[in-house]
Specification:
5 strands, 5-stranded parallel beta sheet, 7 helices, 143 residues, alpha/beta, 52% helix, Rossmann fold, single chain
Length: 143
């Protein structure tokens, strides 16, 4: 058996918002990644943005907690002044909201791809950085 661990995928607020709304296809897709050993990172501020977007839906928090309980999922906190400064810089340079700026800051430091449902929203912010972000769009086959 190999000791290889693939690079984590950072989940942006669009992915987390759809999970919070109970998108079964997306949840199943992420479960498949987890079963395959693919690490997933849930930025805590992106989760907050998803919960704001799904405010009033009774199962939103439970659905995100379920995602966080995946074997290969890690919730990434905003930890300390240094990380707060990195987040602030990311927001200032890219124009991203705090939710997705947290995902971008993690992806930038860790050099990991971002999973999104909307690659277009990442084009300009990515161009604003010295090292462009790696973005993977999860396409909806029904669209």
């Amino acid at each position: 058996m190999s000791d290889f661990t693939p690079a984590p995928h950072i989940l942006d607020s669009s992915v987390l918002a759809d999970v919070a709304r109970g998108d079964g296809d997306l949840i199943g897709f992420l479960q498949d990644f987890d079963r395959a050993g693919q690490p997933l990172v849930i930025p805590s501020l992106a989760a907050a943005g998803a919960l704001l977007d799904s405010r009033g839906l009774p199962d939103a928090q439970a659905l995100l907690a379920g995602l966080a309980a995946f074997e290969r999922a890690t919730v990434a906190p905003l930890d300390g002044i240094h990380q707060a400064a990195k987040l602030t810089d990311m927001m200032a340079v890219t124009g991203l909201d705090p939710w997705d700026a947290h995902a971008a800051a993690i992806a930038d430091v860790a050099v990991c791809p971002i999973f999104t449902l909307d690659a277009a929203k990442w084009r300009e912010p990515s161009r604003a950085l010295d090292r462009p972000l790696h973005v993977i769009e999860i396409a909806d086959p029904d669209r």
